[in-house]
Amino acid sequence: MSKTLFWLLVGSSLAVALYAVLGYAFLTPGRTVHPAMMAAYAAHPWRILIHVAASLVALAVGPFQFIPSLRRRRTLHRTLGMIYFSMVFIGGISGLFTATIAQGGIISQTGFIVLALLWMYTAGRALRAVKLDDYVAHSEWAMRSFALTFAAVTIRVQLGIGFASGYAFEDFYWMLSWTCWIPNLIVIEWAIRKNRFKMHN
Ligand code: HEM
Predict the structure, then answer these.
(1) How many domains does the chain have?
(2) For the chain, which has fewer Cβ within 10 Å, the N-terminal or C-terminal residue?
(3) Distance (Å, rounded) from C-alpha 68 to C-alpha 81?
(4) 82 CA → ligand 1 middle, Å
């Protein structure tokens, strides 16, 4: 991956994490997106607040785990890794609860549920691989896990595109819980396979 692209990923991850801090610490939850979301979160504040607080830490910490010079500092990599995995599990479990009150109906809610399950599964596989000293598998599962964490960025880009194109929230939001992560997984799977091919040739 080119350095520019990598820093773009880091910058966009930090920008969305900052959005989450500002939007949820200082404004009424859901206000930045849609009044229906605001009403749902007002009725169930804890699940969204726990979800946002934990997930934004995973999003902010995750990219730094892929910087080789930081990764070589074992204690730092391990500490940030444990913070990342803990936040993925807290963010994932609370994400499952939040999915039941998500906008966009059953298609949208199912998409968030599948995403939450895959998010925790991929993180769990990355954690297991490191316990087994399988560092290649660890790095591949960590890449898949972060591709799913990055759905938080993709969904906001897609939300922005939807609004900028003049569509009503109700017309496109229902599909975003799928389109925000499937392309990420396809791209990362392609990158993983390309890397494996390079290592064996
Ligand atoms: C990758 C697994 C994730 C799942 C399954 C998930 C699930 C959800 C669900 C179901 C909602 C409610 C949507 C609605 O009310 O219609 C939501 C909202 C939200 N999530 Fe996540 N999420 C994930 C990752 C993240 C990450 C990494 C962040 C980090 C910033 C994040 C931040 C937020 C925020 C701020 C909201 C409130 C809506 C908004 O203001 O844009 N989520 N999430």
Answers:
(1) 1
(2) C
(3) 14
(4) 21
Tokens 């946002």 belong to residue: 52
- pLDDT for res 20: 95
Report the separation in Å between the CA atom of 200 and the middle of ligand 1, taken as the mean of its atom positions.
Answer: 38
* Joined tokens for residue 191: 């990158």
pTM of the predicted model as reported, rounded to 2 decimal places: 0.94
The atom number, within ligand 1, closest to the CA of 173 reads: 16
The protein residue whose alpha carbon is closest to atom 20 in ligand 1 is 52
Residue 119 reports pLDDT greater than 80: yes
Tens of pLDDT, residue by residue over 143-190, are 999 999 999 999 999 999 999 999 999 999 999 999 999 999 999 999
Q: How confident is the model at residue 136 (pLDDT cuts 50, 70, 90)?
A: very high
Q: Give the closest residue (by CA) to ligand 1 atom 40.
A: 30
* Nearest CA, atom 15, ligand 1: 102
Residues 28-79: tens digit of each pLDDT = 998 988 999 999 999 999 999 999 999 999 999 999 999 989 888 999 999 9
b vs e for 14-53, b when ≥16 Cβ sit within 10 Å of the residue's Cβ?
eebbeebeebbeeeebbebbbeebbebbeeeeebbbbbbb
